[in-house]
Amino acid sequence: MTLKFDVVVIGAGPGGYVAAIKAAQLGLKTACIEKYQDKDNKVALGGTCLNVGCIPSKALLDSSWKYHEAQEGFAVHGITAKSVSIDVPAMIARKAQIVKNLTGGIAGLFKANGVTLLEGHGKLLAGKQVEVTGSDGSVTLVQAENVIIASGSKPIDIPPAPVDQEVIVDSTGALEFQSVPKKLGVIGAGVIGLELGSVWARLGAEVTVIEAQDKFLPAADELIAKEALKTLTKQGLSIRLGARLTASEVKKKQVTVSFTDAEGEQQMTFDKLIVAVGRRPVTTDLLAADCEVTLDERGYIYVDDYCATSVPGVYAVGDVVRGPMLAHKASEEGIMVAERIAGHKAQMNYDLIPGVIYTHPEIAWVGKNEQQLKAEGVEINVGTFPFAASGRAMAANDTGGLVKVIADAKTDRVLGVHVIGPSAAELVQQGAIAMEFGTSAEDLGMMVFSHPTLSEALHEAALAVNGQAIHIANRKKR
């Protein structure tokens, strides 16, 4: 027997489950296929982000920051906290409970919206048929008017450091340590490497980050990246740039890594090694040879601006297609596709997808950075405001970092907002909202921001674009 649906979604991560719910809300008979199983061998919804990515890492980041503050940040407030200790298994258990609550929440949303969950591995066949293979080997055929592929991504493996999930781990394994490693190595100074390195550094690990690129955070604005490198180094992360891993050897529950940098051949020994060099799209056994969906030269499913593949009625969203591998990008693509299937003319603004690194201070941006705009020959005006001049940041004892606003010199239109500091992600989102409506720096400067707030730093940076900041000295125009 073949099951029939208006929409079938392969994958229940941030792109897939959101697309399925939206499609169902739009009156389409919808099914969502998911194979991922938790430790109890039960299908868990939410994809990488919820199960082993965004959510659990933020839980550990928050727990580790509270521990760090109790150890080193309370005294300035007149609070004495003696003999502060960390129970790592309890911290990990809290993280696991948060994940469980949220995965269960998605199952409840499926039920409330009438989405049919099909458990198993989904494979697209010709003619918009999907083969679902259950964990017991049973096979079900599903016929769909429309198929949305949201199969996600997985960590990239590198030959010099094969993951064993004991001594050498990927980002998933790094969320499960039951004790603090004395010496921790991290391969990759990207978002994942910096966040996970920060967690364990705060808890007492001696952390060394080995990064092949010579430039730190090349996707970020150079001013923000420079400030981030200085701050994270001060926090105890030893970041080795231009260091290329060549080999690793595990002996007696330790790993010795070999790498080359400007000083030549180097070796270091760690108790644990996290491999965080990026992620790649999951397309294994996903597409039948005759389904006619094509991959690009990098192994991503080829789609147009509206996430349509080369086959009419078949779409792909999230990490398996071009663009940044971000949960919020995947979710909005899922919404767009569901609405287009339902006949609406939905589209996405790919120019305003915020990026965030949840270290402390947070690092976030939206729009273009200064080096990109200069490379394009765009004349710009720049305004910055340090949190050291923010009364709210002073009150919170969290004054590191700054806000940077970049505007077109001719039109004053805001082209980028870049922040390192407290609540950076929230401030950048304010910038994204304003930029979506074509704001000018003058517009932001004329708005009333409540006092005292961290948001005032965005207000002042916008004013500074045109030399009108109130609470810092303005740069004299040449």
Automatic annotation (TrEMBL):
InterPro entries: Class-I_Pyr_Nuc-Dis_Oxidored (IPR050151), FAD/NAD-bd_sf (IPR036188), FAD/NAD-binding_dom (IPR023753), FAD/NAD-linked_Rdtase_dimer_sf (IPR016156), Lipoamide_DH (IPR006258), Pyr_nuc-diS_OxRdtase (IPR001100), Pyr_nucl-diS_OxRdtase_dimer (IPR004099), Pyr_OxRdtase_I_AS (IPR012999). It comes from the Bacteria. PROSITE patterns: PYRIDINE_REDOX_1. Binds 1 FAD per subunit. Its EC number is 1.8.1.4. Residues 353-462 form the Pyridine nucleotide-disulphide oxidoreductase dimerisation domain. Keywords: Cytoplasm, Disulfide bond, FAD, Flavoprotein, NAD, Oxidoreductase, Redox-active center. Residues 5-334 form the FAD/NAD(P)-binding domain. It is found in: Cytoplasm. The keyword Disulfide bond applies. Its cofactor is FAD. It catalyses: N(6)-[(R)-dihydrolipoyl]-L-lysyl-[protein] + NAD(+) = N(6)-[(R)-lipoyl]-L-lysyl-[protein] + NADH + H(+). It is an enzyme of class 1 (oxidoreductase). The keyword Cytoplasm applies. Pfam families: Pyr_redox_2 (PF07992), Pyr_redox_dim (PF02852). The active site is a redox-active disulfide bond. Belongs to the class-I pyridine nucleotide-disulfide oxidoreductase family. Homodimer. This is Dihydrolipoyl dehydrogenase. The gene is lpdG.
